[in-house]
Amino acid sequence: MTLLTPRPDLWSLDPEVLHLNHGSYGAVPTRTLDRMAALRAETEANPMRWFRTVAAQLTTSRLELASFLQTDPDGFALVANASAGVTAALATLPIPAGSRLVLTNHAYGAVRYAAERFARMNQAEVVVVDVPLEADDETVVELIEAELDGAAVLIVDQITSGTVRIFPIAALVEVCHARDIPVVVDGAHAPALIDAPAADGADFWSGNFHKWPASPRATAGLVVAERWRSETLPLIVSWSEHDERMPERFDMQGTYDYAPWIAAPESLRVLADLDWPVRRTQLSAMLDEGAKVVAKALGTGVAEVARSAPTMRLVELPSTVDLSAGEALKQRISRDLKAEITFTGFDGRGFIRLSAHAYNSPQDYESLAARLPGVL
Ligand SMILES: Cc1ncc(COP(=O)(O)O)c(C=O)c1O
Fold first, then answer.
1. Cβ(245)–Cβ(78) under 8 Å?
2. For residue 351, how far is its CA from the centre of ligand 1 (angstroms)?
3. Which residue among 25, 161, 206 is best mutated to probe the pocket of ligand 1, counting the most ligand atoms within 8 A of its Cβ?
């Protein structure tokens, strides 16, 4: 198999910096930035004319994004981010007083806050299921199933942020639906890392295009099962309030910058030109090696994650590193080492979470390995 060449030339990222954290805020290729700049120039040439064209342009974009996810376009709405998608889902589901909102200790912090808000509003309670990092899929399902009595909803990550593991969504949907419990999937990291990520029959799925598909920020999708479509409302009340079509209801959210949503499919074309499925496999292999190189330099190891996301790895931090000072340390690494990485913590263990995208090369991880031991 031929090795694909790293393509930092397709991005405008600062070449002086090691960009090893695509997983947090993504990075947008210049081709998409150019498209977005053209759209904004068009807007400013005649705002009135522009806003007359937005609805039709959003339809085109939405259909392309739905097709990328291989999902039914009638159940696919645009939202600003995965947080908004999960919030809209929780705002739709019935949450009886005294019921439980079940999630796991891998859940993203902001999503847990959303669950806590909706629990408070409905006199319900949040239940957090402890799932060990190394638990296999069967154990994950058993542990969660044991906490489903009285559940109004299961909220589960498809790919966890702090622990980069893939959860067995299809099996969890099956056990929940057998008890008539709705499932909300936080698929923030799933687009472009999992093919057809919304195909497991969850009641709601939300995922970001501004992470791995490298679309402009504030571009995400909400996939809603047929059963809930008529009731699912956007978080912003606007002129589309009485539109009976679920996706269209989410399109026009008042006066807003729609350029990112309209430009988003350009990044999907960039991925296609990058031979993405093949590249993703190669990035995974490169990152396996890269993470080992960094771990070796630190005298630690690469965390054993049961089913790891293809383009993220966890390198154990030396026990001397205090994660409560993690933010300051990240800033020092950014300023002094010119490297962008992030830390995560789980079960009292600290990790560096490393990412790989098409602009990364093996040398990036070697450079990090050479620089990091001086500061950690
Ligand atoms: C698992 C998970 N859920 C939700 C989010 C929130 O995404 P956003 O900030 O786009 O709403 C993230 C962001 O990193 C995430 O990793």
1. no
2. 18
3. 161
CATH number of 8-27+275-374: 3.90.1150.10
Separation of alpha carbons 226 and 267, rounded Å: 29
Which residue of 86, 169, 206, 208 sits with most ligand 1 atoms within 8 Å of its CB, as the best mutation to test the pocket? Answer: 208
Give the domain 32-270 fold. Aspartate Aminotransferase; domain 2 (3.40.640)
- Convert 338-364 to b/e letters by CB count within 10 Å (16 or more is b): ebbbbbbebeeebbbbbbbbbbbbeeb
Average pLDDT of the chain to the nearest whole number: 97
pLDDT digit string, tens, across residues 87-102 = 999 999 999 999 999 9
pLDDT classification of 374: cutoffs 50, 70, 90: confident
Is the CB of residue 208 below 6 angstroms from any atom belonging to ligand 1?
yes
Which residue spans of the chain are classified as CATH 3.40.640.10? Answer: 32-270
Q: Could you read off the pLDDT of 268-324 as tens digits, one per residue?
A: 999 999 999 999 999 999 999 999 999 999 999 999 999 999 999 999 999 999 888
Is residue 111 lining ligand 1, measured as CB closer than 6 Å?
yes
> Range(s) for CATH 3.90.1150.10 in the chain?
8-27+275-374
